[in-house]
Amino acid sequence: MNTTTDDSAVGNAVPTFFDVCNEWHKAMERVEKFNRFLTTDAKIAQTPRELVWTLNKAKLYHYIPTVPESQRKQVPLLMVFAIMNRPHVLDLRPGHSFVEYMLGKGYELYLLDWGAPGPEDKNLKFDDYALDYLPRVVRKVKSHSGCDEFSMLGWCLGALISTLYASLRPDDGLKNLILLTAPLDFSERTEGAFTRWTKSNRFNPNIIAQKLGNIPGEMIDSGAKMLKPVENYIGSYTMLWDNIDNPAATEAWHSMNTWVRDIIPMSGAAYEQLINEFYKENRLMEGTLQIRGEQVDLSKLKASLLNVIAESDHITPPCQSERVIDKAGSDDKEVFRVRGGHIGIMAGRGAEKNTWPHIEEWLAKRSE
Hints:
Layout: H1 7-11, H2 17-39, E1 49-55, E2 58-63, E3 77-80, H3 98-104, E4 109-113, H4 126-145, E5 150-155, H5 157-168, E6 174-180, H6 193-199, H7 205-212, H8 217-225, H9 229-242, H10 247-261, H11 268-280, H12 283-286, E7 290-291, E8 294-295, E9 304-310, H13 319-322, H14 324-327, E10 333-338, H15 344-347, H16 355-364
Parallel strand pairs: 3-4, 3-5, 5-6, 6-9, 9-10
Antiparallel strand pairs: 1-2, 2-4, 7-8
Helix pairs in contact: 4-5, 7-11
Domain AB hydrolase-1: 101-346
Organism: Aeoliella straminimaris
Protein name: Alpha/beta fold hydrolase
């Protein structure tokens, strides 16, 4: 009797009813997972901290140190994020957090959260952020830390505000300045998509601000996403679906998506000023920018300067960040170029192997 199994017959066997039900059940589980990641928030910004100062909507947090006092750096670090996003991306999730990483290296860490402007804040300008908020934050950092010197890390528009402050108040104790993807130069040679849009004579930010008051976060977010529409509206979700059974990948996606969805408005006056005085007229680089009647002179910026540039940044193209090195009056300055995008260089998979260690090593030498 021939008992040889016909492999081809087995391979082509018709699925049973139970096989179909099992596959259907697995597919539905994947759909439920996908929907849950889209509609729920991950736990982010979990590193323990204490509130030490407030002004209007702004809050200053101090992170609880995690190393003995004898191992801590002497110079505290103040982190300043953009005014139209939450700063939680600096502390995305346990095990992948710049805050957590720097605490482990012994830094005394402070974070400025600008908060979400209300209708009553529509007249807030960069003048207010650079010359009202930051000087008061700096005084609190000094008194709380007991150190007369401090370092500052500014990211995106936080880097622009930090640059204004560093140039206008060079003698307030700022020892080290780290700029991340800083939008500073809007000359003809640096035109990216945002610059081309905003420099058009048909684009009038004054009318937009007058009609809306504060600029909705959804409007700013949509503009950024339209720079790479396929990637942002299709590719991101395709990647989630393809990795739906990979816990590490879905956890990372869920955390980032939670931060991305938490968008806040931008004050109307700051929006007008950003488009008119920076994008259209490039006043900072031309040396014609005045803040509260004070001339902003980049040559007066004398803190040690680390300029971190994302090579694949489509929000702030590298050319918009490069020229500050030539303009700054610092004796100690360095450019660090990183492969990655506007957010990815600090929150992507390679950040803890590339960007974070370089920032920490540069800062460690200047924080004793």
